[in-house]
Amino acid sequence: MGLEVAIAGTTRTTSCDVKSLLITNTITSNASVMELVARSSGDWRPRAGNQITVSTTSDAVRYFGGIVTRVAEQAVNRREFRYTMSCNDWVFLFDRRLVAANYGSSAASAIVADIVTTYTTGFSTAPIDVAPSVSAKRWDYARPSEAIQQLADELQWHWFI
Predict the structure, then answer these.
(1) What mean pLDDT is predicted for residues 121-131?
(2) Residues 6+ apart with CB under 8 A from 23
């Protein structure tokens, strides 16, 4: 079982030091993060904002998917550079807009569906289980993940992206 690292849509496995790969996964709501070191001789350079995925080559099981958030460049010699990348999973994109809304007493699943539809782009609510009703809620400029976590805490439920 080999690993494939794709950065900005291009396979860069041979440029990456897979022994340096460190993925910190969280089971629920918090962002998963990844650290990775890559080398380049000038023909390619990772940049913050690049999409990154780590998956198996045999069956394409994805171990990490997200965005490169920080790149530290270090010269190894005159022609080669070492890049230490910090990456966040899709929570980084999920929280781009802030929730500013009032919701009356209703099913938590309906509130979550509205938050995802109204305040995020590119995320689906298809796997949401029907949730019980919660009391009225108001968020004044909260991250979508924070609003959903408050609902999950009240119901003692878990959620993930």
Answers:
(1) 84
(2) 32, 33, 34, 54, 63, 64
